[in-house]
Amino acid sequence: MPQQPNDILHYYRLASQQAALAQTPEEEAAAYRQVVDFCEDSRVCRLDDSIKRNSVMFWSYNNIGDALLKKGRSLLGFKAASKNYAEVLHSYDQALHSARDAAEKISTLNKMAQTYRLMGDKENWIKTEEKVIENLADSFKRPAYLKLAEQADDLSLAAALTEKALDYVLAETVSLRQKFRNLLDICSRLEKLYRRLKDGRNRTRLLELKRKTVRLLMSALENKIIRETDSRRKYVLYDELMRLGNHYLEDDRLWKVQILQLLKSELAEGEVWHLDGTKYSRKIIDKMLRKI
Asked: β-pairing, 278-280 with 273-275?
C-alpha cells in the first residue's frame, strides 16, 4: 500500500478494494490486517480516540473476524479449527474496544456468541449472550434473560438468569396487568427451579411473591370489571379473573365468596355465562355459595 501517514480512512478504502477482489478468506483478512498494522505502527493513530479512527478500527477488526469465521467453517480437524476460532474471537474482542455504542457492541458480541456455539463451548456462549443482554434496552431484557435461561443446562445458572429477568419486569412498556402476568410467569418458573434445586428458602420467597402478585392482578381485574361498560369485554375480564382464582386461590374461601357475589350482581335472571370451563348463573352461584 502507498504510504499515507495518519490517514487511516485512506488505508481502509484500499483494504476494502483488495478484499472485494480476494479469492480466499485468508486474502480478505490480510487486506484488513494492513489497516490494523498501519495503526499499530503509527503513534498518532494508536493514541487517536476520534470517531473516524475508532469506526475504521471497529470495522477492520470485524471484517477480519468475519473472514476468519468463513475460513473456520471449511477447516478439518479440531486443532486447526480451534486455532482459527481463537483468532476470530481475538479479532471480535479487539473490535469491541473500538465500538462506539450499544448497537455495535451487540452486533460484535452476537458474532462472538455464534463462534463459541460453533466451537461447542456452551459455557462461554451463555456468558457472551449475557453480555449481549446487558447492552439491550431495559425494556427488552426480561424476555431475553428468560430465553437464555431456558437453554442453560445447569439449574443454578437457569435460576440466576431467571432472577435477572425478574429485575426488569417493571421496565417494559406494557400495561400494568401484563406486568403482573409477566411477574407471575417468572415466579412460577423460579418456584419450579428452586423445587428441583431443593432450595426451600428461595422457593418460599417465590411462593409468597406469587401470592402477592396474584392478589394485585386480581384486584386490578376487579377494578377494571367495575369500570367496564361493554358486556363483551367484561365477560373476557371475568373469564381471566376466574382462571386466575381457580389456578392460584382454589382454597381461598374469602376470595370465592367475594368473586361469586360480584359475578352474581352482573348476571340477569336466567342468564348463563361459561367462565374457565364452568357454567354460572344466579341460581348456580347461590348453590355454590351455600356449599362454601
From this structure: antiparallel
Written as one letter, the residue type at 132 is V
Determine the Cα–Cα distance for residues 178 and 169; give it in Å rounded to an integer: 9
Instruction: Name the residue with cell 458474532.
Output: 111
Torsion of CA 250, 254, 258, 264, to 10 degrees: 60
- Dist CA 193 CA 213 (whole Å): 19
Helix (H, G, I), strand (E, B) or coil at 267: coil
With beta carbons less than 8 A apart as the criterion, state whether 59 and 36 touch: no
C-beta separation of 72 from 118 below 8 A: yes
Q: Are 190 and 166 in contact (CB under 8 A)?
A: yes
* 155 neighbors 196 (Cβ within 8 angstroms): yes
Mean pLDDT, the chain, as a whole number?
91
Q: Which residue has the cell 480478505?
A: 28
- Residue pLDDT, tens place only, 148-207: 999 999 999 999 999 999 999 999 999 988 999 999 999 999 999 999 999 999 999 999
Q: How far apart are CA 84 and CA 68, in angstroms?
A: 7
Backbone angles phi, psi at 279, to 5 degrees: -90, 135
SS (H, E, C) 33-102: HHHHHHHHHCHHHHHCCCHHHHHHHHHHHHHHHHHHHHHHHHCCCHHHHHHHHHHHHHHHHHHHHHCCCH
Phi and psi, residue 260, nearest 5°: -65, -40
For 1-132, CATH gives: 1.25.40.10
Identify whether the C-beta of residue 19 lies closer than 8 Å to the C-beta of residue 28.
Answer: yes
Q: Give me the count of residues in the chain.
A: 292
